[in-house]
Specification:
By secondary structure, this protein is of the alpha+beta class. The strands form three sheets. A two-stranded antiparallel sheet has the order 1-2. Strands 3-4 form a two-stranded antiparallel sheet. Strands 5-6 form a two-stranded antiparallel sheet. The longest helix has about 55 residues. The two termini are about 30 Å apart.
Length: about 160
């Protein structure tokens, strides 16, 4: 008897797959497939964010007193830049989200990006665990669907023989 239980997620109910008909199993599989798709999309978005935080942290590392006065390209949009000069190598202004910016000293900026990378990585790991659990659920559903289809096919084979 196959049943599905998601112990790590509180509030989840246990479902006895053997009590569901093929249509219900197909609907459940479709919902699990959708959930897996959402997890994949979330992982992709987090991976992009992680890359941006890593890049920002590496850029802050390169900002030293010797870079003061150097000419750089400053992004105005994702595809448009203007020439600029580094005036302050002790402080940076960082995007902290939703249109807010904060001035940080170099060590504070390094720490901020390190913490953001760590946080995003932890969220990715949590989603990966959920994805593994959902994949196990999907496998159990597929196995039960196959068993039920075989059970339905056996009486038809016997009556045609």
């Amino acid at each position: 008897m196959a049943s599905v239980s998601m112990a790590p997620a509180p509030g989840m109910q246990q479902i006895d797959l053997s009590k569901l008909n093929l249509h219900q199993l197909a609907q459940l599989k479709q919902q699990v497939d959708h959930d897996l798709q959402v997890f994949q999309e979330s992982l992709q978005a987090l991976k992009i964010a992680q890359g941006k935080f890593v890049d920002s942290g590496e850029t802050v590392e390169k900002l030293t007193p010797s870079t003061k006065g150097k000419t750089i390209l400053v992004p105005l949009t994702s595809s448009m830049y203007v020439s600029g000069t580094i005036a302050d190598t002790d402080n940076v202004i960082i995007d902290i989200g939703t249109g807010y910016y904060a001035q940080k000293d170099i060590d504070g900026a390094k720490d901020y990006f390190k913490r953001k990378v760590q946080f995003v990585t932890e969220q990715m790991e949590k989603i990966q665990v959920l994805g593994i659990e959902k994949t196990k659920v999907k496998d159990a559903i597929c196995m039960m669907m196959e068993m039920k289809m075989q059970a339905q096919a056996e009486p038809q084979k016997a009556s045609t023989s």
